[in-house]
Amino acid sequence: MMEDAKHLFFSCDFFGKLWYGISHWLRYHTVFPEHVSDHLYQFGTLGGFSKRNRSAFNLIWLSCVWVIWIERNARAFHQKEVRLHQLLDKIKLQSYWWLKANHPNFAFSYHLWWLNPLPYLGIYL
């Protein structure tokens, strides 16, 4: 059967669990929709509706999609697999570097970002 984006990124038994790891890291517990545009919209607004937070959460979402795509290709073409927690760490690192590249004033340490990114996005729960 032909693989589609909905299955690969959201409903796959393996990669679907990654979103719950991300939501746990972000301290949000929610059920995500399985349609790409709805998923992106919901994820992007987890941090509120300010332009800055939507931008940061969209960047984290794109990091997730990018890491899933890279891992999918590694599995399909190179028979290499990593564990779920390793993918989560890759997403944290990727989003950190993308945020630093896009926001020159983002001067936080990776260790603190890895533990809890919300304060560095101006979100306090």
Average pLDDT: 88
Sheet with most strands: none
**Topology as H/E string?**
HHHHHH
Outline the low-pLDDT stretches: none
- Number of E strands: 0
Please estimate the helix content: 55-70%
Strand content: under 5%
> What's the number of domains?
1
Query: What oligomeric state do these chains adopt?
Result: single chain
Structural class: mainly alpha
In whole angstroms, the N-to-C terminal distance is 43 Å
Task: Please give a structural write-up.
- With 125 residues, the chain is mainly α.
- It has one domain (5-121).
- Helices cover 64% and strands 0% of the residues.
- The protein is built from 6 helices and no strands.
- The chain has helices at residues 5-11, 15-25, 36-44, 51-78, 84-102, 110-115.
- It is globular and about 40 Å long.
What's this model, at a glance?
It is built from 6 helices and no strands. The chain has 125 residues and is mainly α.
Secondary structure topology:
Elements (H helix, E strand, L loop, with lengths): L4 H7 L3 H11 L10 H9 L6 H28 L5 H19 L7 H6 L10
Helix pairs in contact: 1-2, 2-5, 3-4, 4-5
Offer a few descriptive terms.
125 residues; mainly alpha
